[in-house]
From TrEMBL:
Alphabetical keyword list: Ribonucleoprotein, Ribosomal protein, RNA-binding, rRNA-binding
GO MF: rRNA binding; structural constituent of ribosome
Any GO BP: ribosome biogenesis
Transmembrane segments: none
Name listed for the protein in its UniProt record: Small ribosomal subunit protein uS5
Domain S5 DRBM: 17-80
Pfam families: Ribosomal_S5, Ribosomal_S5_C
Record comment regarding domains: The N-terminal domain interacts with the head of the 30S subunit; the C-terminal domain interacts with the body and contacts protein S4. The interaction surface between S4 and S5 is involved in control of translational fidelity.
Family from the record: Belongs to the universal ribosomal protein uS5 family.
PANTHER family: MITOCHONDRIAL RIBOSOMAL PROTEIN S5 (PTHR48277)
Protein function: Located at the back of the 30S subunit body where it stabilizes the conformation of the head with respect to the body.
Length: 173
């Protein structure tokens, strides 16, 4: 029994998933006996190789909320097509609630020019060179979801050619 538990723990350490907490909020619910306090954690999970997800967890303690957020983030993973310059293939805008996030490819050496939750999402997705701008809302959850929507909507030349059933060379003509 103890050996099996140890194996699980070492497997978790070997996994290349990173998690970053974007926000922890104390929230309350009014019940008959008064106010019931709990915590909401927004967590971004990624492997820096093109997979990233955003999760939300609520629990009566912070550690439980973060754990639930990580589990939720792993359920919401999206694949990100990266270019050779570790950038996004084309400009795109994503929406999440009232938030809009604009992403543009950048030259190698530029770095991640983004702020807040969008920066965290892009870094954990493995994007190294990108320009991003948050428009509309400054809510970290909606901005993270908007960035995830933008990354999920990205397409590559080979992907578009495959969808149309033609060779990549015909796309340029």
């Amino acid at each position: 029994m103890a050996g099996r538990r140890k194996g699980n723990r070492s497997r978790e350490k070997d996994s290349n998933w990173q998690e970053r907490v974007v926000q922890i909020r104390r929230v309350s619910k009014v019940v008959k006996g008064g106010k019931k306090l709990s915590f909401r954690a927004i967590v971004v999970v990624g492997n820096e190789k093109g997979q990233v997800g955003v999760g939300v967890g609520k629990a009566s303690d912070v550690i439980g909320a973060v754990r639930k957020g990580v589990a939720d983030g792993k359920k919401q993973l999206v694949e990100v097509p990266l270019t050779k310059a570790n950038s996004v293939p084309h400009p795109i805008t994503g929406r999440g609630g009232a938030a809009k996030v604009m992403l543009r490819p950048a030259a190698p050496g530029t770095g991640v020019i983004a702020g807040g939750a969008v920066r965290t999402v892009l870094e954990l997705a493995g994007v190294r060179n990108v320009l991003a701008k948050q428009l509309g809302s400054d809510n970290p959850l909606n901005n993270a979801r908007a960035a995830l929507d933008a990354l999920d909507s990205l397409r590559t030349f080979s992907g578009v050619a495959e969808e149309r059933g033609i060779p990549v060379e015909k796309l340029y003509a």
